[in-house]
Amino acid sequence: KKSAPQTAVYVSNLPLDADLTELKQIFSKYGIIAEDLLAGKPKIKLYTDDDGKFKGDALVVYLKPESVELSIQMLNGTKLRVNGGDITVQKAEFKEKTDTEAKGTKRQLTEEEKQTIRKRLKALNEKAEDWNGDDDTINPKWLKTIVIKRAFTQEEIKEDPLVLNDIEEDMKEGCEEIGSVEKVIVFDQEEEGVVMVRFHNSDSAVKCIEKMDGRFFGGQKLAVSRYNGEHYNKTDDKGKHRKHSPDEYEN
Fold first, then answer.
1. Basic and acidic residues bias located where (predicted)?
2. Domain co-membership, 21 together with 121
3. What does the pLDDT look like over 221-238, one tens digit per residue?
4. pLDDT in tens, 111-168
5. Helix, coil or strand: residue 84
6. Domain count, the chain
7. Assign residue 79 a region: left if phi > 0, alpha if psi is -120 to 50, beta otherwise?
8. Domain span including residue 208
9. 98 to each of 93, 102, 107, how far by Cα in Å?
10. What is the pTM for the complete model shown?
11. Distances (CA, A) of 85 to 14, 48, 88
């Protein structure tokens, strides 16, 4: 039996006065939070002690498994508040239910409840399709995308515009030694000599940063980091200079 993909994270060491609204605001930056389709509330559970007081632990359930990795990488070991302690974010582990437990004693839903669930599920799926990262969210593609600076100089381009093709090939060849590459973009109008590389998975992106950051290329020390949503200058197909986001290049 194939297990279902993991879509929940377990969060600990939260401020004791944290509430559902605050957690939803923080964790929804990294993906769509699942909902109780009947109640219409986000699937965030705050764990309490015998006296009903919040213990500082919570469960956050996302709609898609990609958000689990994203939220862990972005939030684990960070502070929820400036003066607070570091929170721990990890994959939630669940004990697999037996067939008897899975069947349970669930009551039959009314037609009105079924209609409510269908309506909310449709809205949630539409929201998930539209979610691709904006000013307040992180696009999952950014996890597997890196930015390499000081890969070239403007003097090199002025001397030979065709050198851009060589730079693209060199960057791709070097990165392919680490992992499978989806896309390489040279932002020719950037003074810092910016090249973006998108891998097929985030592990390769992390390894590339570790291996290439600080390495010398063409006499310059490379600065390699994860892409953070910034737009860079590039000459477009019509010869015009404008700022581009790597998210524009999907093919």
1. 229-239
2. yes
3. 999 988 877 888 888 665
4. 887 787 778 777 777 666 655 544 445 666 777 889 999 999 999 999 998 899 999 9
5. coil
6. 2
7. beta
8. 142-244
9. 16, 6, 19
10. 0.52
11. 8, 19, 10
